[in-house]
Fold this protein.
Amino acid sequence: MVDPYSSCPCGSGKKFRFCCQPIYPAIERAIDQFRGGQHEAALRTMDAAAAANPGHPELLMRKAMLLDAANRREDGERALDEALKLVPNFGPAHFMRARWRHQEGELLGAAILARKAADGYPLEARDHLADVHAFLFEMEMNLNRPLAARAALRMAMRLTPNETNIKDAYENTFGENGSLAPCLRKELGLLSPPPGSKRKASWDKAAREYGSARLGDLARLFSFLAGQDSADSAAAYNAAVTLAWVGDNSRALEHLERYMGLETDEGRKESASLLGEILRCGHGMEQHSDLLEHEFLVVVRRVEPMQMLVNRLAQERRLAPLRNEQQDQANTLRALVFEKSTPVETTDNTPEYHRVVATLEIQGPICRVHGSNAEAIAALRAEFSESLQLQPSEAPLRAIAAIHDCSREVMLVSMKGEESEALARQLQEYEQFFEETWLNRPARSLGGRSPAEAAKDPTMRPRLAAKVRFVEELAEAPLQTGYTFDRLRAKLGLPVVAARVEASAPPAIAAPAVEALESASWNAEKLASSAVENVSTAEVVIALAAAQRLGDDTLVVRWAEALVSRADAPRHAVAHLHLARHHMGQGKHQEALDTLEKGHRHEAGAEDSRAGEFLARMAQALLKLNRTDDAIAQLEAIAELPVPDLKSMASGVEALLGARQGAAASKLAQQGLVLAKKAQNRDAEGHFEELAQAAGK
């Protein structure tokens, strides 16, 4: 039995008692019947329950599960259609379909449906959402979209912080010693609006409209902001990053190109160009990518012809099996395929090298042949077609954007000879490839120009430097032979690594608009137990937003103190004001004044400054410290602001009245009344009239 006060298994985020408990006996009875072989009876039980509880999509989804288990997936699809008619964004139904598409080999469809599930589940259904994002991690990795995979796995970690399997997967893939190249493991930050920008109000308004902890909402937010103002470079960059996080590489690249047209700093341009190189290698980006994997798939209908073909390749010394954990399984093979060449007579001392042109993978009835050289794969496809008597429509050639070492097309395997000689020969191949072939090969990311041509244009230097760095970080095999990419940089006129300053990445401080979107990953337990000294400034900002959302004053004070104590803290009026209010409540008036003065300095020069509020609060603290003249001076300064804060002036008058400073209160009230009339603010005008009357008594 399900605990009545545990989360409902349907993923609604509600307690079981207040959600599916009334319909669960029917579900359990149907499952028991199905397990007992009474399939039709189980389906009738589900139909009866659905008729008795109209509008409940969970029953239809459970029926779909039973139909699928009975090998009736088409009927299951119709049951899910009915469930989605009732609740179009029903997360469990979308996620079930995502798993089905994955089983059918439709990875892109699976990812799209899983995104719908991530948007459909309520935020309270943390375990279910973690499962969806862990699934998305696998799909996105297979779709060559590591930025989306990283974001999905990180979200799964935030949703279930105690799940060791997810943590291990993250560390093994994206951690400091992860399996991916450094550029694919790097965490991307988001930009804030420039200090004093008029755009901040638009960002905050949009954040309130789009705000949630969903990656999809984050992408929609910055896509909206970027479309709202074509000159907003920060919004364009953030749109690129957040769209990459949800696997929309095409739109991400569009926004990134716009950002690069607005950015003037070469270091940041190089970082953005490196991001662009990664985006171009994702699924569906073939028209933009310079790294393509060419392949064809053969459905093995008869084993004998395929076995004869494999045996012939082995006899011709063109096949080298790769050992793996599946090597002993039937109908499973993974091997390197070598270039077809004319046999030559050799002696025992003659080195023998073979150029690798493809990888052959056979698993069950599917044979896949793939490699980076289009001509070599086309030649192999013709060879397979002849041996297996394929029809013209079978095993079509296709090119897929992929992330791989581009020098694989000159990879050699030494079958005979000294290891040192083999390394020297391979090194020679890499030198010739990068410094002659690659150097003069047109590249889409360079606008169709070759690296040698792009090197002549100073405006292309950030893109060119990023491209070399990208190729270098993926080139594990060349580096192992001792090849240094500084040779290539020298030919292109780029700084060598030793003298090269690391490209400056955009600051990783989350923009205020992002705080609300990421704060949901911090619950009360995490806010109370986390060691603030081990949390980055960006995360402190987010934690403070989460504490405010929870309304827990103790937690707000804890994280406000952590933020205001940081030397690199961004401008954050709420932290200073809340902490000062806390000090005042404890009678620590000098500490409150110190906090307010620090916050007031941060407000200097900002167009959306809350300086008036700080001045009024400072006056209140000064009055408590019996520094009346200083308090009056602070309040008078409010009237001198570019846009006088009438509300703060009124609160200052009230503070003076409370301190029995009638004359000063009357003078400030009259001054506020003049300003209110000038601003045609009727509410403020009436308030100051009442305050002036009170001060005159």
Summary: The longest strand covers residues 352-363. The chain is about 60% helix and 5% strand. The CA atoms of residues 91 and 484 lie 50 Å apart. Residues 419-437 form the longest helix (19 residues).
